[in-house]
Automatic annotation (TrEMBL):
Family: Belongs to the GASA family.
Protein name: Gibberellin-regulated family protein
Annotated region described as Disordered, given as residue ranges: 37-60
Keyword terms, alphabetized: Signal
InterPro entries reported in the protein's UniProt record: GASA (IPR003854)
Annotated signal peptide: 1-25
Amino acid sequence: MNRFISNNLIPGLIFLLCLVQIVAAGQLEYSTANRNVNSSSLQDEPGDDTGPISSSPPGPKIDCNFACARRCVMASRQNLCIRACGSCCLKCQCVPTGTFGNKEMCPCYASIMTHGLKPKCP
């Protein structure tokens, strides 16, 4: 009788063990997928007005101090120009070439406005 019970119990235990493995694998896959979703949602933080990371300009970071000094070299108010250009450069990672105009080269730079709806970036 003991042999009969153990022989009938083994297939049931194997089935139960397989079921536990399948459930554990599903939980692992769910937690990994959930972790990936959570980490990607952290990229666009609330209060960050620069937009999602995917919309930021590609390429290496530029030297904003050098680029803005070059952009503002002929400005009558250099300190003001460099300060405004620096904040725009940090946000957009782009400064148009030349000392004036050429803003079509950097759409982000051209689109930043002051509270009075005037272009902020020189």
